[in-house]
Specification:
Blueprint (H helix, E strand, L loop, with lengths): L16 H5 L4 H20 L2 E2 L8 E3 L8 E3 L6 E2 L23 H18 L3 H18 L5 H24 L1
């Protein structure tokens, strides 16, 4: 008989990140972006891939500016060593075009999520426009010959641009 894991969570009054961020000031959104980045770094340090990073999979402890984000929805999470699957998973808007399970794909998804949080404030139409006109163009025009390296570079570039912009103008 396989062991069963049961997760019990408290009521999280803040809802998900998409709903929470729309009326929050830039400093609060930046603080949450850093905490979400640290959560994903923790997963990767323990050799796990989330495979579905997006605002709906980040829940907030309260509606207040000082709420803490919690990464959730681990049903697609796998160990890094099991990443040879070719089945597409996750949410297409937040995934790189090939969506192969990898740390690079998680980084790309995190970059899109942080762009949504910091600049689009949960506005999906604005995010789609930004992706089509910016990030995906970078993905296909990058000098890096290895596609997975390009995915990681674009994800890191999105994250770097998001954090530098916020630190320059809001801190």
């Amino acid at each position: 008989m396989k062991p069963v894991v049961v997760v019990e969570m408290p009521w999280l009054a803040g809802g998900n990140l998409r709903g929470w961020c729309s009326d929050k000031d830039p400093e609060a959104r930046l603080r949450v972006a850093q905490q979400v980045s640290e959560a994903m770094q923790f997963l990767h340090a323990h050799n796990h891939l989330h495979r579905d990073i997006k605002p709906e999979n980040i829940v907030m402890t309260s509606e207040h500016e000082n709420a803490r984000p919690l990464l959730c929805d681990f049903d697609l999470c796998i160990k890094s060593s099991e990443s040879n699957s070719t089945v597409l998973r996750g949410t297409p808007l937040y995934a790189p075009p090939d969506n192969a399970p990898s740390k690079e794909a998680d980084i790309f998804s995190l970059g899109v999520t942080l762009c949504d949080l910091l600049f689009c404030k949960g506005n999906l139409q604005l995010l789609r426009s930004w992706l089509v006109n910016g990030a995906l163009c970078l993905l296909y025009t990058s000098d890096a010959s290895d596609y997975s390296l390009r995915v990681e570079l674009v994800g890191l570039l999105i994250i770097k641009k998001a954090f530098s912009f916020c630190f320059l103008f809001y801190c």
